[in-house]
Prior knowledge:
The structure holds two protein chains of two kinds.
Chain A: H1 4-27, H2 34-53, H3 67-99
Helix pairs in contact in A: 1-2, 1-3
Chain B: H1 2-20, H2 27-36, H3 41-56, H4 60-90, H5 96-99, H6 117-132, H7 134-153, H8 159-182, H9 184-196
Amino acid sequence: MFGFHLDYYFCCVLAVSGLLFILVAYRKSSLSVMPYCLGFILVLAAAILFFNTENRIVNDYQGGLDANEQIVLFALSALTALIIRKLSSAGKRIIRKNIN
Amino acid sequence: MQDFIRTIIDFDQKLFLAVNSMVGTSSIIDSSARIIGSDYVVPVFLSLILIFLWYKETSILRKFKARLTVLNSIFTLLGACSIVFILNQFLFRERPFDLLEANLIFYAPTDSSFPSNSVAAVVGLAIPVFKTYRKIGYLMLSSGLCLAFCRIYVGIHFPGDVLGGILTALVSFFLSTVLMNLFSRQLYLSLLIFEKWKWLKIVRL
């Protein structure tokens, strides 16, 4: 897609976003199955997207990621997913306020 | 003593060949093993579980307990990787595909085979969680063992390397727990700062 590093980053953002859907529903003890399903679908989609677009079984000196890069990129992607989640819920709140 | 070590190495190689000889029987199993044994699936899955544990609780006491477990997992992982790094300065074991007529269906790593770094890392992440949350711990440990089996299957580790990785993770867990007990007050204070400081609001759910 966009190069190994960016692909990994985007797929991790997608997977963590899916997890956040599940987490929020779990914390609210939501009885609706929708957020759980959406979360699982996002996590699965991230994995499928990552492995189906290119050959990912490559050594770190042949274009893959070494352990340090993985840790940094995963942390960044988790932070990005959290910020996206915060922004979207703030946006929702503003829209609701304006409607009322 | 040398005979004893030779016997263990022979047994290790026989066990490796028994697992690795199954390569080629099914292309679906082969590609699944390649993906599960890769550096991305199991580590990311376990990291997602750690994020879940970090945020799942709402009451302050349970939250701190869960977060201390997550911190213990991270310290155990870092410790395990450091131990593997130090061990690799002193001993080098060739990969199975260098020594035997193995079926290699993965990329060929160039670092030491013993102990398995990836197994040490994922088992290191799983052990502290297993100690506190049994069900989630079982899930994490079984994922780690699955990764371990797949790495033998694809031809890049001996079973002995995997065992070495697990032992490394256990040693690291012991050291990490001792260190965390020594610095428990500072850790609680850091967690309190994370919970209350307004500039960290962005990373709270």
